[in-house]
Amino acid sequence: MGEFQSFPAGIRTRSEPVPIEVHRTAEGKFVSLNLLPNGSLVPRGDAAPEGEVAVGFDGKFATQGLIDLQVNGFDGLDFNRGEITGEQLDQALVSLAKTGVTALLPTIITGSPHRMVSTLRELDKAVSTSRLGPHMVVGYHIEGPFLSPKDGFSGAHNGSHMTAADLVLVDQLQAVSSRKIKLVTIAPEVDGAIEIIQALTERGTQVAIGHSAANADQISAAVEAGARLCTHLGNGLPQMLHKTDNPIFWQLADDRLTAMFIADGIHVPLPALQTMLRAKGPLRTILTTDAVAAAGHSMWPGPYTLGDAAIELAEDRSVRIPGSRYLAGSSVTMDQMVRNMAVWFDQTVPNLLQLMRENPLRFISDQHEAVPLGATDGVVEWETRSDEWFVSNTHIGPFTIE
Predict the structure, then answer these.
(1) Domain identity same for 177 and 134
(2) Is residue 303 reached through a cis peptide bond, with omega within 30 degrees of 0 on the bond before it?
(3) What separation in angstroms does the CA of 100 have from each of 291, 340, 368?
(4) In terms of domains, do 33 and 150 share one?
(5) Is residue 381 part of a domain?
């Protein structure tokens, strides 16, 4: 253990099995389990008789952990800044775990090829030398540079670094990472996009459509080639579009696409979000934060970074490049989105676990490779306060975060 820095605050190891009743979404019920010291969940030999196991979501209860497919940074740490230590990453991951997240895809955004490769190299090294990283980081999400450089579509990404789709760059990124690139966001209209989507799909890498000015035919071609996700649908777009003939409707209409949404009340107005959720349905919807360094429970308004860009957290919790009307990621947390969705749309815990665990897990699971315990056996203990759900403890691998 000599490679580790000091033990992060708020985290402890377990030496004995912990009996716990966990709600398993796939089974639709609470199950009596033992949480082993290594983080595995196994059936409990002395399981409580049926009828004595907790069956509701009032008071205190436990669920499997939440999975976030797009995290650019958290709790003051910018994953795209480079020179990250394992100790710094652990602090951010402890804070993420306190929001109910037990597995994630750290996200590398558009930059020069050299910058993206060096950033991922440093980040992956930090993951490997941290305590929580090997249990929580399932792989990586590459968002750029194969995106639209057009104003509005590019969002907070630096359009000067956007290029034609290039499998060589993806290979260079994968070569410096000990973990698999699980997801790549691409604009289908970019030169070479359809070919790279097909190649990535054949490798088992998921492809999402995002930051795209594609027309309906180009989106359809991307789906035919293997794209199956939409990155933060409703965003990465200019303010003015045709009222119905636009990329949002084209992606909503295709049942082969599962859409990721940011449910913070800022990225998509509530009536529009509700409409999009109804269009996609519970099996083709994923909630993600697109969190940046300004995200977290105790982050103050002010300046932060997203890679080379200066960003600013406003009093209303929106994050933008100073002076720009375009959003630059979000400050929302997964547990806050749980509360948001329950209040706004009367969503239940099982419904939310479908959107925030089961659906994302489907896209990061790999039959040829084991995923970290945070994705399979992470456990979150919740408590009810004022009819809302808050995280009390999170169990990931051998660690408990309080």
Answers:
(1) yes
(2) no
(3) 14, 14, 27
(4) no
(5) no
Under-70 pLDDT residues of the chain: 1-7, 46-55, 152-154, 238, 367-368
Q: How much is the CA Rg of the chain, to the nearest whole Å?
A: 20
Q: Is 40 helix (H, G, I), strand (E, B) or coil?
A: coil
Domain of residue 301, CATH code: 3.20.20.140
Residue 19 inside a domain? The answer is yes
Among 64, 105, 72, 78, smallest CA distance to 352 is for 64
| Model pLDDT, residue 53 | 55
Q: Residue 140 is part of which domain span? A: 65-372
Beta strands (DSSP E) in 288-378 are 302-306, 309-313, 318-320, 327-330
List the structure tokens of 205: 């890498």
- Compute the distance between CA of residue 105 and CA of residue 120 in angstroms, rounded to an integer: 12
Residues 42 and 94 in one domain: no
> Could you tell me the two tokens for 143?
């968002």
Residue 36, both tokens: 């082993």
Residue 384: the pLDDT is: 94
For the stretch 122-159, pLDDT in tens is 999 999 999 999 999 999 999 989 998 887 666 777 87
> Could you read off the pLDDT of 391-402 as tens digits, one per residue?
999 999 999 999
Same-domain check for residues 56 and 125? no
Tally of structural domains, the chain: 2
Residue with tokens 């959720």: 277
Indicate the pTM of the whole model.
Answer: 0.95
- Judge if 77 and 96 occupy the same domain: yes
